[in-house]
Amino acid sequence: MSDLTVAEKQEKAAVDTQAYRNSSVEGDADKTVLKHELGYEPEDHLQRNRSLLTLLFQSLAIAAIPYGEGGPLLSAIYGGGQLSIFLGWIIVCILNECVAVSLAELASRWPTSAGPSYWSFQLLDPKSNARVLAAYATGWTWIIGNITIALSVNFGFASLISATASLFHPDWTASSWQLLLIFYAICLGTLLVCALFNRHLPLVDTFCAAFTLVTIFVCLIALSAKADVGRHSAAYALGHYDKSLAGYGGFTWFIGLLPAAYTFSAIGMISSMAEECRDAAVKLPQAISLCVPVGGLAGIFFILPICFTLPPLEDIVNNSGGQALPYIFDSVMGSPGGGLGLIVLVLFVTAFCSISITVAASRATWAFARDDAMPGARWLGKVNSKLGVPLWSLALVTLVQMLLGLINLGSTSAFTAFVSVGVIALNLSYVIPIATSMAKGRTEVAKARFRCPTPVGWIVNSISVIWIFFELVLFSMPTALPVTATSMNYASVVLVGLGSIALAWYFIHARRTYNGPPEAQS
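Request: output the structure for the sequence above.
Response:
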């Protein structure tokens, strides 16, 4: 009798599964997978209006090559100049593609906006007492990374605007409070766009991708044609290396990897868009894995003219604006007007990046709050029925950025801290599920629709873990030695402070209410 019961259950399960598969005809396949396989009730107010291309364009908008490489370019100057910029870009692209593919496999196996916290939970043994705590820690690290990397974009945007103004007024430098007000205006403007124009955001991402290519092309032509400070030979442009600026000796070259690593640090953030695209188990991982090669190739055409026309490194380091890119554009173009024309293009790219990255961060916050892991989860985990966005989560992402921006009033190295915290937290949330998947023998990702062949998967995952741990060290270091109050990297202080809030909430409330994400059905 028991055998018959088992057979009946198996037959019923097969019928149900076939029914779920057949629902794709009605366009509900993603909803049934989300509900019956991943355990989440579909959110009716979220539109599945993202395609493979718009997801790829969003990931490229988040990478924002001219800003991602140009914003923290001063680190590459300290890191030795042309060799670090050119060769570092190529090496980082190869290493980050391994990370992207590793994340793509996980996103394909469990295509939910909950991302790394959900992946970590499903990968650990259901009988393990550490399962819920691991998901909680990974989720909070993920949220901290999302918010602070968005903060780094908006604060870097403000810094670029300030440095651009100094092209026309070399003796003027924005005070801390002036920079803060510019930053606040950017945050609030981004909030309004993300809240009110949600249905048009895929089009915005598409336009951003096209505009980024135009910006790169214009910079390539303008810098190469003008070259007011001269053109370097190919050997000098691609191989010049000056290790005297950072004070790290032979390690200086690795400091130069920071801009490229920052550019592609947020490749996993579009996983939070999983519940806004159709056939997410295939299209989402494809978009994640394509971002680095497409963006990397485009980036080559942005950095080459810079390498061939770069002014003396000491002059860039000592410029009054505090940012490398506006000074380079001004010097190479031979006039503030010429430099302004190029930097305005980069500012537009940065504005689009601010929108795209804020959208992704708000979705990640909403998804984690949906699991009852955050204070105010009943509001943060809801989607506004009129606007079709998680409005409270969007507001929280903006508010936290504005509060953290106050750090700038007490430290002139705030931008370095924001960049470092964002990259460190994101990479920590990446490495936990990747390493756990390896420890489980890659048995779960072997079931994904998008996956690497077994030998390749092991190699890719191993490179990812090693590279991520190296990045954790790299982004914890000050840009230059000797360390001063100005050059100090306060990333560890900020990260510990934010982590303490998560830990306090766990003991105050979450340990009694948070049970982890829903259990996935194989």
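The chain has one domain: 48-513.
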